[in-house]
Amino acid sequence: MYLFKLNLFLSFVCYVWSGAIQITSSNIDSILSSNELVFINFYANWCRFSQMLNPIYDQFADKVAKQYPQQGLVVIGKVDCDSQSSISTKYHVNKYPTLKFYRHGIMTKREYRGAR
Q1: DSSP per residue over 12-44, as a string?
Q2: What is the residue-averaged pLDDT of the chain?
Q3: In the record, which residues are listed under signal peptide (predicted)?
Q4: N or C: which end of the chain has fewer CB within 10 A?
């Protein structure tokens, strides 16, 4: 059911402004608690897969912001795990990029373990 909703959500996005919101240790708790849906890219600048994903992820964030401009509904964020190592430790991120989807502050239980 969640995958269906996520696919439906992703299929109706359009273009607007400035990429994913940079998440830090000072704003992650408020972002997770004040938004219904939060999709986070945990990345490392030295990782070539993260480098390949980042521009696509920012375009995705722009489209979502255009489609869902209302506050508190959807946030597309990203965490630089090199500068925010406390976040990557807290959320058990040790592979890059890692994408996590939160609904009402709770991470969905599914994890993709296939090829990149």
Answers
A1: T----SS-PEEP-TTTHHHHHHH-SEEEEEEE-
A2: 87
A3: 1-18
A4: N
Within 8 A by CB and 6+ apart from 93, the residues are 42, 79, 81, 87, 100
> Which residue, chain included where needed, has tokens 């109706």?
12
Domain boundaries, the chain: 15-106
Fold of 15-106: Glutaredoxin (3.40.30)
As a whole number of angstroms, the distance between CA 11 and CA 62 comes to 14
Q: What is the DSSP letter of 73?
A: T
pTM exceeds 0.85: no
Q: Residue length, the chain?
A: 116
Is pLDDT above 70 for 20?
A: yes
